[in-house]
Amino acid sequence: MDAAFTPEQSAIRDTLRSALTRGGEAPPGQLWARLADELGLPGLALPEAYGGVGGGTVELALAFEEAGRALLPSPLLATAGLAAPLIAALGSEAQRAEHLPAVAGGTLTAALAVPGDGLATALALTGDNADGAWAGGGRAGGVQARPLPEGGGWVLYGEAGQVLDGHSAGLLLVAAHAGGFARARTLLFLVRGDADGVRRTRWTALDETRPQARVELRDARAELLGDDIVGAEVPGALAAVGRTAAALLAAEAAGAAAAALDRTVAYVREREQFGRPVGSFQAVKHRLADLYVHVQAARSAAYYAAWDPDGGGPLALAQCLEALRTVTGEAIQLHGGIGFTWEHEAHLYFKRAAADELLFGPVHRLRARAADAAGLFTGAATAGQATTGLATTGLATTGQAATGQATTGEAVAV
């Protein structure tokens, strides 16, 4: 496997970093529109037939890494990472032709709405999603789908309590029970964000750069995603999207950790104590060196997962979330008194670390899920299979670290 990026992939990263540096003070809506117009960001991984760029997971992961560095407040994850791939995988040709070009052009944002707080389980990141338990408990929970007579479509009743960018998405992709009883079949439905019977309330989230909302559906009109209710393999499609989303989130976390470290190194170079820069003290150098190792290991794992999401996505996400938590916590410490203030940006990176682990983790559950999938503790897999399934982090750390070192090799030279 060639671990080097192509010139086109490097150009995507450099161009996006430049655009985010120039447009950091723009309102989120204006910035998203500009990124869509100038860079085609929402359609980076969508087929050219639907107005996309035609890239893949690697290109999108590089964009996520830069978005993580800037803590970009955008619907990139909800739209390009979750909803659009599901529409492409399960939608009918008419649905793809209607919605994907609008997504690629930046005129339509979308959000995945699953009942309760089971997003990580719905995506099969922290548990098996095949039984549909994450979608609620039949008549008493979740979202219920009821068909209207004479082919008049569907109506949905229920609520989803933790929808990423659900407050502003123009299109909602809702997981609902069809049948009205426990263990009923879980399907995906398309609901317009402004449809009658839809009420959306934005939460005050821990990480305000990753907005969440409660979506209430009261007999809201909906359209089944796909042509055939029998042939819709929703759990499998969600799991596939979850593996790719894990790789994207890993790249985003690695980018955020790198930015937090860069800001910390810049601060300790300038901050003086006892007549010399804080960064010149040996104890500080040792702590920064440890953080540098965390960042490079996280970046390597994220790149490996981008090249092979099916083989390394969840494990890479676990390592990158752990690295982000460690780096941001140390960053606050090394910034001293100013690191604890609301006026400084250090708390924003720390909140991203905490919020992402609450949404998609925790780390130990991500690793436990990967171990179960590999059959490590059940005897279902051979020793070689178990090693292959769980060696992603180590392989990425030793195999691809050089790529990240070329970018930030001087970061800890204080």
TrEMBL record:
Domain Acyl-CoA dehydrogenase/oxidase N-terminal: 25-106
Residue intervals of the Acyl-CoA dehydrogenase/oxidase C-terminal domain: 247-371
Highest rank taxon of the organism: Bacteria
InterPro entries: Acyl-CoA_Oxase/DH_mid-dom_sf, AcylCo_DH-like_C, AcylCo_DH/oxidase_C, AcylCoA_DH/ox_N, AcylCoA_DH/ox_N_sf, AcylCoA_DH/oxidase_NM_dom_sf
UniProt keyword list: FAD, Flavoprotein, Oxidoreductase
Pfam families in the record: Acyl-CoA_dh_1, Acyl-CoA_dh_N
Alphabetized SUPFAM superfamilies for the sequence: Acyl-CoA dehydrogenase C-terminal domain-like, Acyl-CoA dehydrogenase NM domain-like
Names of the cofactor(s): FAD
Entry similarity comment: Belongs to the acyl-CoA dehydrogenase family.
Name under which the protein is recorded: Acyl-CoA dehydrogenase family protein
Lineage start: Bacteria, Bacillati, Actinomycetota, Actinomycetes, Kitasatosporales
